[in-house]
What we know:
The chain is an all-alpha fold. It is built from 4 helices and no strands. It has a single domain, classed as Arc Repressor Mutant, subunit A, CATH 1.10.10. Helices cover 60% and strands 0% of the residues. It is globular, with a radius of gyration of 11 Å.
Amino acid sequence: xxxxKTKLTEREYELLYLLIEGYSNHKIAAKMGISVHTxxxxxxxxxxxxxVHNKVQAVIYSIxxxxxxxxxx
Length: 73
């Protein structure tokens, strides 16, 4: 169900999984080897692609639309 509007990059998918697991922006940055600023930029990109305004909405949207398979977590 990942249509063109919601197509995520590999890094955005990786970050989204970490959000679902409850990681903070700082922990995501450390785990991915990127800056907190870059984490925030990826999150904002996900928000735009999903047309949502916060992390909870992004996680719910990704599960509801089948973008993330919760059984693989």
